[in-house]
Amino acid sequence: MYVWLTILAGLAVLPAILKSLFPYFLQDFRYVLNTIRFGIRLTKYKKVKPFYSILDCFLDAVKKHPNKIFIHFEGQAFTYLEVDKQSNKVANALRTYASLKEGDTVALFLGNEPCYAWIWLGLAKLGCPVALLNYNIRAKSLLHCFTCSGAKVLIAAAELRGAVEDVLPVLREQGISVYLLSEQGGAEGISALSDSIQQASDAPLPRSLRDNVGVRSIALYIYTSGTTGLPKAALVTHERVWAASFIQAVSGVGSSDIFYINLPLYHSAGFLIGLAGAIERGITVVLRRKFSASQFWDDCRKYDVTVMQYIGETLRYLCNTPQKENDKQHRVRIAIGNGVRTDIWTEFLQRFGDIAVRELYAATEGNVGFINYTSKVGVVGRVNFLHTRIFPYSLIKFDAEKEEPVRNAEGLCVRAARGETGLLVGKITKHSPFVGYAGNKQQTEKKRLQDVFRKGDLYFNSGDLLRIDHDNFVYFQDRVGDTFRWKGENVATTEVADILTAVDGIEEANVYGVKVPGHEGRIGMAAITLREGEEFDCVNTCGHVANYLPVYAQPRFIRIQSSLEMTGTFKMKKVKLVEEGFDPEVIQDDLYFLDLEQKKYVPLTRQIYDSILAREVKL
């Protein structure tokens, strides 16, 4: 009897001992179990014939709860059954009028609205991959993104008619079918689609129309900025769609939750984690055209939102709103996103209550990711034995000046020490593949890093610097190479440089991102040289970048130099420029600031500089 009492007493204090010695044991254990559970599910979906896709999951949700609201949008509510019927109309209309069939790629050029969901579902019912175009892009970038997907059909929102008409001559030359979601087509070569959809049958389509769609088939093209000067179309397979959809479940989202999507649906966060994740959970989403800090919490209260998405800027904007007595009066319990600073994270929790912030690290095309399933502030995840075996990865030493991995005498990479910042690389295997980019073999190969730890091995180069501390927590440090992130968008420096050098008088441009105190990410800045005898045209330069670049990519600071510093291999040096930033007291070169109200570049004075630091100037 005494022995049993001793054993029971030991078991009673075991949780306390585990928590003392291993404070994150239970959270680690729960995460590992979830990883195993969802891994088994994905393996099952991959093996079953015919392949069980996220579309099939949606159709099962329609059968299970047809009258449950799937989407709330601007006072309207759409049930799972209504969205299903609308997607049938879309599929039947496009099958008839556009002659779409399995394998045909269609590009969507739309903002956030409910039809985004049912057009995508309708195309999925036909077995058609979908390219998700950023509605901010124009001209050369728009044509590039459309063309590299191999799409033969473009479906655009009525309000984007002007952007479509700008590139229409090229689309017509290529024999592209262009449809506008309106009752009137517009210019010759643009057909109206709304009436055709409304008049189409809502009868279900036969499963045989997508019989050849498998787990490794391309489901989506999602665009990510690259170093070629133009966005890259990341190939997203059905397997990747499933993996991303599980992020909600891993974060603790259940079938009764209500998910708030205010991020663009052309992004992997809004589409894969948000929309596809909601389908996997069978839940209700609240969709908003654009994020609004002033209306955010009112929306959450109105719709009883329990899960929100964010990027770093989202939480900062919310913290910058005037404080109210009801700041903590809401039902939001989980926030899923990435890119929030530690100080903003802490302020957000103090002001808006005990919300589980699930900060994550991932890349649309990458083969390794992390998620912070603990309550520790400032981290993107934790190292655990299962994760490293399923998705082998490592941090390697990186030379920031040369912008390349450090290699030893044998030509192999060197592992970063624990606590040291290093470049994240993920081993390319059958279970953690890197599919690459559509129509861009060169950029696909640039992301493949060979001879990392042994001759012949192959790793995905994330282009990101991370750090793992002695408690196994993972921290995001910085982005390297020719991209930076501003306003939640990736900006390709070479693309911006190409636009600048097309301005009369500008000879060369070295574009980079600089930090602004109190803001997430890096804002665009360019060091330029002028052609002999030319002066900087403040008005014309502003007009040119405004015509060709979305606002977040327009360089807000211009630094005029007599020459641009190069490396021994003729690469433009950026490290020193980034460190010097845009302080007029540090920099002796002429500096200019893009004044959006005056629509021109103005000399960057000390007064303007101080106003920016005081957040009196909106960036």
UniProtKB/TrEMBL annotation:
PROSITE patterns (UniProt xref): AMP_BINDING (PS00455)
Record-annotated AMP-dependent synthetase/ligase domain positions: 60-384
Domain AMP-binding enzyme C-terminal intervals: 495-571
GO biological process: lipid transport
Catalytic reaction list: tetracosanoate + ATP + CoA = tetracosanoyl-CoA + AMP + diphosphate; a long-chain fatty acid + ATP + CoA = a long-chain fatty acyl-CoA + AMP + diphosphate; a very long-chain fatty acid + ATP + CoA = a very long-chain fatty acyl-CoA + AMP + diphosphate
NCBIfam families: PRK08279.1 (NF006134)
Protein name: long-chain-fatty-acid--CoA ligase
Organism: Coilia grayii (Gray's grenadier anchovy)
